# Entry
Amino acid sequence: MRSATTLTFRHIDYSSALESRACELGQRLHRYGEPITHCHMTLERLRSGHVSGAPFAVQIDLAVPGARIHADSLRHDGAGHQDIYVALRDAFNNAKRQLQELHSRRFRLIVRDSLRGADAR
# Structure
């Protein structure tokens, strides 16, 4: 069963197009190997005093069995984005990468353990 994506709009007006795109990306995260039990996205306009001057950021919080993932759209310098859709895309790509890395680590552990079991026979 797929978890529903919940959204929080912070300091920005609600948009059905933005909600639709965020939910679509939330559902696409299920493709990347780990069963997601919780997905919450926060779409926000950063305060005007923020260092970057770019007004938008997105955070994605995921729960999978045995792990939690936090992904955001902020760049390495802490800057936001001028376009909320670009911020959404970057947060999605960050979450996707973390899910793929988690799946890969878990798969390597399974293979390693199965090889150790074969050596013991």
